[in-house]
Design goal:
Elements: H1 6-18, H2 21-28, H3 32-46, E1 51-54, E2 57-60, H4 62-87, E3 94-101, H5 106-117, E4 122-129, H6 131-139, E5 145-148, E6 161-175, E7 193-197, H7 202-214, E8 219-224, H8 227-236, E9 240-244, H9 249-253, E10 258-275, H10 282-289
Parallel strand pairs: 3-4, 3-5, 7-8, 7-9
Antiparallel strand pairs: 1-2, 5-10, 6-9, 6-10
Helix pairs in contact: 1-2, 1-3, 1-4, 2-3
Length: 292
């Protein structure tokens, strides 16, 4: 393969980062045709198609996304070197862009990012969304990390991703203090009403397994696939619920809810998903090393 032209790579990186050829050409002070020619020369040199046209927009190919990962590492380090040359020091402030599944417990998120809150050398941003959009954000280097309570399924599987279990929280039956029974499930739960996670959730699967074991038929008042909504229902409905205690830790501390009992060998699992890359920010390494 011919020697890589880093000017061409930089032009590719700029277009990939900005997402628009016209805007990138404007920022680089080049004509659109000249910029397009430079990128075509890079594609010819490495014998890889980096972009494909979708209507009037350019989209990265799968190989283009991988090349962007390397280019991002190269030019991020280059910007640090430039700062060191001109200022004599490398900036100590690090920034993390964290994506969170939009149904994830806000209390868990707060616990996870707590080390960042007390670190004056770190800034971070949080973006909530669906799994597809979050993984796209990782692939486009808009996000450094995605937090989810769902493992990567076959529909999302790609060697690009790295998934790490960062926490597991025991599942418990929670409800109002004045309705707590002394007996173990299902004793004392005959007339109980329930607000439960959606049927598609792993938490619901665990509860259904417990009910099947004891041939218990729950009286379901409401269902929700969002932890924030389930937390409100558990707090305000007077019904019982099944969720990790961390979700309602504030309500438990205030005496609004109590933990009746934990489900045997049942947990909600939380994962951190990152994109495979050569350069990983130190603060991200540190954050993941402190989990589980």
């Amino acid at each position: 393969m011919s020697r890589l032209n880093y000017h061409h790579l930089y032009y590719f990186w700029s277009v990939a980062r900005i997402g628009n050829l016209t805007q990138a050409a404007k920022e680089l002070h080049l004509s659109q045709s000249a910029l397009s020619t430079q990128i075509k020369q890079l594609e010819h040199t490495i014998n890889i198609e980096l972009f494909e046209r979708k209507g009037r927009t350019l989209a990265l190919t799968d190989m283009g996304k991988r090349v962007q990962m390397y280019a991002n590492d190269i030019f991020t380090k280059g910007e640090e070197l430039s700062s060191f040359i001109h200022k004599g020091v490398i900036s100590q402030t690090q920034h993390l862009s964290i994506g969170v599944l939009n149904t994830l417990s806000r209390n868990f998120i707060e616990e996870f990012i707590n080390p960042l809150m007390s670190n004056d050398e770190v800034r971070f941003s949080l973006t909530a969304g669906r799994m597809d959009g979050l993984l796209n954000g990782l692939a486009e280097h808009e996000l450094d990390l995605v937090l989810t309570n769902k493992p990567i399924g076959l529909e999302h599987y790609d060697q690009l991703w790295q998934s790490q279990l960062v926490s597991r929280q025991p599942l418990a039956i929670v409800g109002p203090a004045d309705k707590k029974t002394r007996g173990q499930f299902p004793s004392g739960y005959t007339d109980a009403q329930w607000v439960l996670p959606a049927k598609t959730s792993a938490i619901r699967d665990s509860f259904n397994a417990l009910c099947a074991r004891w041939q218990y038929q729950p009286k379901i008042k409401a269902e929700a696939d969002d932890m924030a909504m389930l937390r409100l229902l558990a707090r305000d409905s007077g019904a019982l619920s099944v969720l990790p205690s961390v979700v309602v830790k504030d309500e438990i501390e205030q005496g609004l809810l109590v933990e009746y009992q934990r489900l045997p060998d049942a947990f909600e699992h939380f994962y951190a998903i990152t994109a495979q890359r050569k350069f990983v920010p130190d603060i991200l390494k540190s954050l993941l090393a402190k989990t589980c």
